[in-house]
Amino acid sequence: MPPTNPLLQRWQLPAWSDVKAEHLAPAIYAIVADNQRIIAEVIATQTYHPNWDDLVVAIAEADARLAETMGIIEVLSTVKTTDIDWIEQSALCSITAARYRVQKAANLELYHTYQRLQQSPIADSFDDFRKASLAKTLRAFRRSGIELPAEQRQRLTAINLDIELQEQLFLINLERSNAAWSKQIDQAATLEGLSAAFKDRLALNARRTGKSGWLLTLDRNTYEYFMKNARDRSLREEYFRAYCTRASDQGPQAFQFDNGPVLQKLLGLRHEKARLLGFESFAHLRLSNHMANSPAQVEHFLKQQIEQNRAALDQDMQALQAFAATQGFAELQAWDFEFFAEQLRQLRSASTLKGLREYFPLDETLHRFCQFNEYLFGIKLVEQQDLSHWHEDVRLLEVSEYDQVMGYIYVDPFHREDAPDFALTNTVRNRRINAEGRPALPIAILHCNFPSATSEHPCLLSHKDLRVLFHEFGHCLQQVLTRSPHHNLSGISQLGRDTGEFAGQLFEQLSLSEELLQWLSVHYKTRAPLSRTRLTSALAAIATHTSRDTATLLLEALFDLELHRSEENGRNAQQCFETVLHQIPQLQLPAYCRFANSFDYLVTGYEASVYAYKWSGVLASEAFKRFERDGVFNAQTGRKLREAFFSGDSISLLAALEIFVGQPVQTDLAAQPD
């Protein structure tokens, strides 16, 4: 171990560039050992007369130190996807941290100490935040089976550790499967329909691996663009088969990295865990701390959404089939839909949408969007020049209010081969106040996947890119502006998924605001804004032919729910998927597709919660009605939004929504099945 480990030093902002693979495991081992010592000391000194600082704050500080260090590792893991040593070390750290958390959750003496504090006279004087934090801690213990008989507690501990191992194995198999397949292309004619910039990326892929021509890989962005634009139907079919059979018993890598048995074991463990804790299924357990009341309510909501989308989906599919027929294709296959949908969109909307991205260069758009949020929330967002980073493209925004720093947002905007091929928000630190009254400032990381600048133009954002930027920025602002002083209340990671997705969905609504988009727009050459007439037409075009995307999201959500609701006579994941697919027959897929085997939402914190995207989207639409009424440039509305929604996990989302809109909210979410 090197003499100085940056992960073991005190920091205000992480020393990203100093962290190496050899630092990871020693740091986590040391922190876990220190935390175990702290827990033992707390139990020894706080058993009979516990107090807030020496029990709750002491344990919270220990928990936060481990969470923040793992947060750094997880952020760097998203940009070190080709570093085998790093991947192995970070996986070891994840397992070590999980083992510690499982053992802590099973510590009966610690649980009783918290109980005594809650039952003590001093607890009556706690403010609402303290009461909520303490109650949440005790609920977490009970959800971990702390009140079970000893033998069952031991079994539950073993299950939780095995679940962590299976989740890691699922991701490792998927990563290896993605890396194992590629397709070299030597004939330029094969790439007809693809843009010059995209072909340059494929050529760079080939050169990096010592090959000539162009190289297709299984990253999602490459796949999605290719399937929309490539005219070579046979190559689309080959690519489709490779992509939809990843980590499975089918396709070009059949049985090499098969996640089928992994997923089956994982589901069995989750259901066993739920039954030990007194729940009917894992979905019932998962939803016990979500806004949704039951799996039946979520199922009713999703099926209602499917029915509401059905007419538009039928209409869009009929139009697609008719258009394909004019191109000589009487019957569409799964690898045709995205291509012909894009061709039809271009035919109908090309003149409206062409050049739209030229009005949204990244630098100006991000700068002006920061100005908008400054006005809306009464804050300052200032880019910092002196920073440690993991890549030279990374930017750092300092968030402040009344000259008081509130937190930090890192922005990693561009696509890179060793970075995620999707957008996401990571959190490194939640806001908290320590025993000395000093704040630890929250940190959020915004990863996007935008195209880099070229020699001809800067990075230019499509409307889809704007949606992504706004969505993730909403998550980041919620992370840094949350007011709670307690680690277990103040962070988006502390919220149920159906609540945690709300801010992102609400900010995504801003991408449909003509008022805001016109204000943001500036042509990268002429500096002219986008005309209101053209913007109106563009947004109308963007809103059409979205039914298939909606249906896909609903399919994923219903499948995830069904998978975690029952085992039903040993039915495996593929059989479950086929059952759900019958409910949306317009989404045709070949029998060899193995969607579940690469559906990483099942192992990354969204299990039995994928519905959250649609659920929170409905609530976000309700909240956005106030912006539609008052205008998006309304500081009073912005401050009201901040007061209502950025209070951490201390009030329910529905209560916050009613505070914001000023009246009871009537939505389909409250509806129960007959």
Automatic annotation (TrEMBL):
<dbReference type="GO" id="GO:0006508">
    <property type="term" value="P:proteolysis"/>
</dbReference>
<dbReference type="Pfam" id="PF01432">
    <property type="entry name" value="Peptidase_M3"/>
</dbReference>
<keyword id="KW-0482">Metalloprotease</keyword>
<keyword id="KW-0645">Protease</keyword>
<protein>
    <submittedName>
        <fullName>Oligopeptidase A</fullName>
        <ecNumber>3.4.24.70</ecNumber>
    </submittedName>
</protein>
<dbReference type="GO" id="GO:0006518">
    <property type="term" value="P:peptide metabolic process"/>
</dbReference>
<dbReference type="InterPro" id="IPR045090">
    <property type="entry name" value="Pept_M3A_M3B"/>
</dbReference>
<comment type="similarity">
    <text>Belongs to the peptidase M3 family.</text>
</comment>
<dbReference type="GO" id="GO:0046872">
    <property type="term" value="F:metal ion binding"/>
</dbReference>
<feature type="domain" description="Peptidase M3A/M3B catalytic">
    <location>
        <begin position="226"/>
        <end position="667"/>
    </location>
</feature>
<dbReference type="InterPro" id="IPR024079">
    <property type="entry name" value="MetalloPept_cat_dom_sf"/>
</dbReference>
<dbReference type="GO" id="GO:0004222">
    <property type="term" value="F:metalloendopeptidase activity"/>
</dbReference>
<dbReference type="InterPro" id="IPR001567">
    <property type="entry name" value="Pept_M3A_M3B_dom"/>
</dbReference>
<keyword id="KW-0479">Metal-binding</keyword>
<dbReference type="InterPro" id="IPR024077">
    <property type="entry name" value="Neurolysin/TOP_dom2"/>
</dbReference>
<keyword id="KW-0378">Hydrolase</keyword>
<keyword id="KW-0862">Zinc</keyword>
